[in-house]
Design a protein that fits this description.
The complex is a heterodimer. Chain A is mainly α. Helix content of chain A is about 80%, strand content about 0%. Chain A folds into two domains: about 60 residues, no CATH class; about 240 residues, MetI-like fold. Chain A has 15 helices and no strands. Chain B is mostly helical. Chain B has a single domain, classed as MetI-like (MetI-like fold). Chain B starts with 10 loop residues before the first helix and ends with a helix. The chains are: A mainly alpha, B mainly alpha.
């Protein structure tokens, strides 16, 4: 990108005293009207598909004023849903982080047969419909499932209870940390870790002192994406939750119930909390990308 | 298997844990779907998965996903191009916003799109007098699937465009090529594999999508009912074997698609490394 910007600036300074025709014939850019047309098309497309929906969430949420808004988000059932959403994310995210680091370590630092199959298998949950993710846990832990009668006899509830919601959340967010870390750790190679080993570092010291500083931004990126998906998951959680208000409702399910009940302002008020989470996620993501770019420039200048 | 491949510690532990966790969370539960389907005889299975209402849902799900992925291929390429090549105010914010469909919970997207495109909504009220109905039609399904697939093409094409060196295009221009020739002969061949990958990812994501679709779709059988919803309805009716049969059809198609995408990636990596 910097090369293009640089040639742009040079071209502009060189040709500024010529007429437009010369500027248009610049080798690697389009005529001004084409550029304006393309930018307008993209602005229209992103405006309709991204900006209008984002504005609509907050407009609808505040349609009946702040009092209704705060009443909706401080409602006991909304608070219970918030709590459950946090619990599910607090369990799912760390488990998938441990898995992601472990999978990336094995795949990036070692050669073994079947590696590409393993990578594809890690991607599987991405290709599985969330409803199917819920279905498979019902087949195992539901009343007529594999462990149904055992769980019933021992009074353990998984489906239509919190463990089922946590499991479904883990499934749908399964690949994200691993997908971020595998290419990153593959690109970094294993020279630094091997140097540490030669100097007498233990395995955990290598992981903590050498690998972790190299991957921390990628890891954080993965954690943020996983968290956003964990807190926002709908289809899979909906299938296993049973929609018991105040008990097995997460925030997205609470939004659905309010919407189905025609309490639009309340539904959008709760939805706006999730939209804020999405905005914070995007800001953090942009910040991390900026930090990584800064680090890259810093490293190049050394 | 020379020993120097295994200098670093933790191979057995990390691979072992990876396979154990993968099996417990993903592989064994997914196998349950295939085992459950075995409870049905083949004719029973066929009757469920080829029922007219289910077939109508496949057509809608795959047709709308394909159209949405095509829309995203065209506009995603344009978006990536504009974000990489041009300067305009607000570009950085738009760039960050491209990931919104990935970060915004699908239920939120669902109720928002349903509201915007309803007869009294911001866009719906404007389209309705022109005879275009979006809510409760297949068009609504396409709108929702376009929304959730939006980041994929942009994010796969963008880095390739950024890495593209200006020299080849300059050479083309100095040899007398016009901008369109430079694009179609130089730029496009370099980015089409990324474009195809982004298209497939958007398509794969759209096929399974549930939350953002069901609110705007209105879910009329034979008209705007997607396959994941059919599975959900059968689950709700405790028809587990039937729900699983339809799920298996979707799983097989999704898996084939995923293997095709990963095969494409592998082929591209190999091509890239061999060309350098």
């Amino acid at each position: 990108m910097s090369i293009i910007t640089a040639t742009d600036t040079i071209a502009k300074s060189q040709y500024s005293h010529y007429n437009n025709k010369v500027a248009i014939s610049r080798a690697t850019s389009e005529p001004a009207f084409v550029r304006r047309l393309l930018i307008s098309i993209v602005l229209l497309f992103l405006g309709v598909f991204l900006i209008v929906p984002l504005l609509a969430v907050f407009t609808e949420a505040l349609r009946h004023g702040f009092a209704t808004y705060f009443a909706a988000i401080s409602d006991a059932n909304a608070l219970a849903a918030m709590k459950l959403t946090l619990i599910a994310a607090l369990i799912a995210v760390p488990l998938n982080v441990v898995f992601g680091v472990s999978a990336a370590w094995a795949i990036a630092k070692f050669e073994f047969k079947g590696k590409s199959i393993l990578i594809t298998l890690i991607d599987l949950p991405f290709a599985v419909s969330p409803v199917i993710a819920g279905l498979i846990y019902i087949l195992i832990f539901g009343m007529q499932g594999w462990f149904g009668s055992y769980l019933f006899d021992h009074d353990i509830k998984i489906i239509f209870a919190i463990p089922g919601i946590v499991l479904a959340t883990i499934f749908v967010t399964f690949p994200f940390v691993a997908r971020e870390l595998i290419p990153l750790m593959q690109a970094q190679g294993k020279d630094e870790e091997e140097a540490g080993l030669v100097l007498g570092a233990s395995g955990w010291q290598i992981l903590w002192r050498i690998t972790y500083p190299n991957i921390k931004w990628g890891l954080l990126y993965g954690v943020i994406l996983t968290n956003a998906r964990a807190m926002g998951e709908f289809g899979a959680v909906s299938a296993v939750s049973g929609h018991i208000i105040g008990m097995t409702n997460t925030l997205p399910l609470h939004v659905e119930i309010l919407y189905a009940d025609h309490q639009l302002a309340a539904a959008f008020a709760v939805a706006s909390l999730l939209a804020l989470l999405a905005i914070v996620t995007l800001i953090l993501k942009t910040f991390i990308e900026w930090r990584v770019a800064q680090n890259a420039i810093h490293n190049e200048s050394i | 298997m020379s020993t120097n491949k295994y200098i670093l510690p933790g191979f057995n532990l990390s691979l072992g844990y990876t396979i154990l966790y993968l099996s417990l969370i993903v592989l064994i539960p997914l196998s349950a779907a295939f085992i459950k389907t075995a409870e049905l005889s083949f004719s029973e299975f066929w009757e469920v998965v080829s029922a007219p209402r289910v077939v109508a849902s496949y057509k809608l799900t795959f047709g709308a996903s394909l159209i949405a992925a095509l829309i995203n291929a065209i506009f995603g390429l344009l978006t990536a191009w504009v974000l990489v090549r041009y300067k305009f105010p607000g570009k950085k914010i738009l760039d960050a916003l491209v990931d919104l469909p990935f970060a915004l919970p699908t239920a939120v997207a669902g109720i928002t799109l349903a509201t915007i495109y309803s007869a009294h909504g911001w866009i719906g009220a404007w389209l309705e007098p022109h005879g275009i109905k979006v809510a409760s039609t297949p068009l609504g399904v396409i709108v929702a699937l376009t929304f959730i697939g939006l980041p994929f093409v942009v994010r796969t094409v963008q880095p390739v465009l950024e890495d593209l060196e200006a020299e080849t295009e300059e050479a083309a221009a100095s040899l007398g090529a016009n901008r369109w020739q430079a694009f179609s002969k130089i730029v496009f061949p370099a980015i089409w594999p990324a474009l195809l990958t982004g298209f497939s990812l958007a398509f794969a994501r759209a096929i399974g999508e549930y939350g953002s679709v069901i609110f705007i779709a209105g879910n009329l059988p034979f008209v705007s009912e997607i396959t994941p919803l059919i599975i959900y309805i059968k689950l709700d009716e405790h028809e587990y074997a039937q729900a699983t049969a339809v799920a298996v059809v979707m799983l097989v198609i999704s898996f084939l698609l995923l293997f095709a995408i990963n095969g494409l990636q592998w082929w591209l990596n190999r091509r890239n490394t061999s060309s350098h």
